[in-house]
Write the structure tokens for this entry.
Amino acid sequence: MNTIRKDFLSSRLDGIAGSPMLALIAKTAELRAQGRDVIGLAAGEPDFETPVHIQDAAVAAIRRGETRYTAPEGTLALRNAIARKFDRENRLSYSTDQIIVSVGAKQVIYNAFAATLNPMDEVIIPTPSYPAYAEVVRMCAGTPVGIACDVSQGFKLRPEQLDAAITPRTKWLVLCSPSNPTGAVYTQAELSALGAVLCKHPHVWVLTDDIYEHLLFSGEPFATIAAAVPALHDRTLTVNGVSKAYCMTGWRIGYGGGPRELIKAMTTVQSQLISSPCSVSQSAAIAALDGPHDFLAAHQATYRERRDLVVSGLNAAAHIRCGTPAGAFYVLASCESAIGRSTPNGGVISSDSEFVTYLLESEGVVVVPGAAFEMPGYFRISYAADSRLLNGACERIGNATSRLN
Ligand code: PLP
């Protein structure tokens, strides 16, 4: 057996968890391979195919011989397309040297923290939150400072909470809107109010993760903080990518716009880590950002129908409650009233993780425990799946909860 000494592994990884969603996706595949009838709703990825015009752009890039390393910060052509996108969709002005292209939005986030955090630096993260923020902060020797934003405040950070959490060591505030896992969306007015607090604390920067920008059902226009509060433009990193809107999770292209010096430092990190993002995917991303974009409205309408189906299906199930999220493709539902109840085989459900295990074992439905997002007592369901599966999942969840005493 191949064993390594415990101290061979870096202490940098002490207490760092791998992605819970990726672990659940692997578990779903394993159960299916064993012949189990499983509905997997843990993955945060569109079930639609990458649009054909984007696929065609990638094939054409290969045929043109665009198969070599590119500039470490991404091709000039793609950075120009991103600059046009920021200008057209967000009223944000970034020159091409204020833009970096990375292997997914996740790597943009890593680059930013690796390039800026020193030991003891604090990063404010409103919770429930996407798990990678806190784990990447820890990997980069920083200290994540979670601020609990519960359902009574729509899972959104309040200005007074932000003000109270800022210390001389605060380096970043992370915002994610529409949010994974809550689907909560900040309005322009809410961002302005948070911005007013930040204007009093010029040492605090903002990383805004806008990856779900195009999955918005509120009817209000999408708002992002560097546009809502122009005074913050020079200390904001606006992160986005093609994974969710353009159904390109596997192509691995994300990007960030921010101050030149920050982008330069992030490029240094990236050039030693990956040399450059995939050349073919970069050409595909140009086609994605330049359009056509008509399919976005159709996808949005479909997601909205699915959201409504899941919200009513879950609220019809015993011991489950959820609100109606305004964006992304997740519902974060409370299973608090299922906790403490006994299952048909005599076990007692003592946490959201055990509730999720009970759903998996009794009904073959895979969802993510709220604890993964620092929201115990809840679970997250992704509705990026077709309606038949979602109906089936809600029915199975209802069956499972009706058997709890
Ligand atoms: N940010 C959030 C909030 C996400 O939910 C995800 C993926 O689930 C990412 C970033 C990562 O996106 P990418 O595929 O661009 O790395």
